[in-house]
Design brief:
By secondary structure, this protein is mostly helical. The chain contains five helices and no strands.
Length: 151
Amino acid sequence: MRRAWRVAHVAATVAIPWMLAVYYWTSADRYTIEGSGRVAAHFHMAAAIAAAVLFVDAVVLRVIGRSAAATVPFAIVWAGALAYSLNGIRTFSGKEFKDYCGNVELCIPDLDLFVGAVPFALAMSCAAVCSIVVDRKRRSERLTVEAIHNG
């Protein structure tokens, strides 16, 4: 049961940022300022929910024991993503959005998504793969040391 949970956590760590990037890139509504603001608000809402769930999951898995992609750095990244997304929701929803884009000639509400969605997904994927490699290496070293002491 715990192994399946750890595998699901690693899969979610890799898949969710890519799913959000695909959502952004395939959103037909992002070609107008208002539509782009709606896409940004929806993106940040989904990202905040995902970051909160992955943050709690990483912390709980870390407290229980070692696991790939459930380390303190991952928890910090998810906490930062949650804070950033909560700010994005506030910025691109309702009156705040009108204040943000209402008084300027050039407004690109989804610029942070355009510039950041795919690089964040790529960085999280690489970090998860590296975490898996390090976790496997530590496990094999621990098993080797135990075999030497027992043998």
